Write a sequence for this structure.
């Protein structure tokens, strides 16, 4: 790929380790010439993330917790001061109490419902609002979602409800920001073995069924999501906004898994 992202500057939120989806996207963007600022959540993640992102030549690395307004104020003040302009944002953040990522959705508590929606959905809107004044030459924002937003997946529970709200926010944000040349899209990734992914009850079962029933007969990898991230954040997708783009080996297209004998 030619240096599709040369001269572009962006913020990447959600790297926890080298299996993070945000990291898969960041390495694809780096190879295409992007300059990136990173955030990490808390000192423990910081220790791991700092050396990783320094290798990508990043100078702006900030601790930020989306539940902490001041940390976001600090982050955007720094981006304003050091860059003054932002071209893209990667939002790859989600959280729910793992006790509620098993059993029945009907048992979700109000406290965890609110916290899950705040971290996993509202934070994207919050970041979009803060990023907008910096996107003086247009821009592109992406977030990460999962098919549990539209169909029931085992144990996904409140996270499915949060992702449904997140996907709706993508459409409303696209409508709000489009007139300023800012695009907003989501990548709906198939199940991946990350820290957040492992917390979901039935993770191994979901991983296996997705692999066996997907048209491509495999799970998706970081490079798959990285390629889609590069497309959505670069000018290749200049005419695309308000969409949910599936990177799931085609699983979403299937109504019923194939019979074992036809399972190619
Ligand atoms: P991950 O654990 O590597 O990343 C999740 C990130 O969210 C971590 O970096 C964590 O620090 C961050 N985070 C959580 N609460 C936060 C807070 N309050 N403030 C700031 N950051 C916070 O796992 P991942 O799978 O790479 O997750 C990234 C995104 O991809 C999530 O939105 C997830 O729902 C989505 N996704 C994951 C899968 C999967 O199977 N792993 C599939 C589809 C979508």
């Amino acid at each position: 790929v030619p240096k599709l992202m040369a001269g572009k500057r962006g913020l990447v939120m959600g790297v926890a380790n080298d299996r993070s989806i945000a990291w898969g996207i960041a390495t694809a963007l780096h190879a295409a010439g992007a300059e990136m600022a990173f955030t990490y959540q808390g000192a423990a993640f910081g220790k791991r993330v700092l050396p990783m992102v320094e290798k990508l030549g990043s100078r702006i690395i900030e601790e930020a917790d989306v539940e902490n307004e001041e940390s976001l104020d600090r982050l955007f003040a720094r981006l304003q001061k050091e860059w003054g302009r932002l071209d893209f944002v990667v939002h790859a953040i989600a959280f729910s109490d793992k006790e509620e990522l098993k059993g029945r959705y009907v048992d979700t508590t109000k406290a965890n419902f609110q916290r899950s929606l705040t971290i996993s959905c509202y934070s994207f809107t919050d970041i979009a609002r803060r990023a907008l004044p910096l996107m003086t030459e247009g821009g592109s924002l992406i977030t990460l979602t999962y098919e549990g937003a539209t169909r029931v997946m085992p144990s996904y529970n409140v996270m499915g409800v949060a992702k449904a709200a997140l996907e709706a926010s993508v459409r409303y944000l696209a409508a709000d920001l489009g007139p300023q040349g800012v695009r907003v899209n989501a990548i709906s990734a198939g199940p991946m073995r990350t820290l957040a992914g492992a917390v979901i009850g039935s993770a191994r079962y979901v991983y296996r069924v997705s692999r066996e029933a997907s048209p491509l007969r495999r799970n998706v990898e970081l490079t798959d999501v990285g390629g889609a991230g590069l497309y959505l954040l670069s000018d290749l997708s200049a005419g695309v906004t308000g969409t949910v783009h599936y990177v799931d080996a085609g699983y979403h297209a299937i109504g019923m898994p194939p019979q074992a004998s036809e399972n190619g």
In short: Helices lie at 21-31, 42-54, 69-82, 110-131, 157-177, 195-198, 203-213, 222-233. The chain is about 40% helix and 15% strand. The first strand starts at residue 9 and ends at 13.
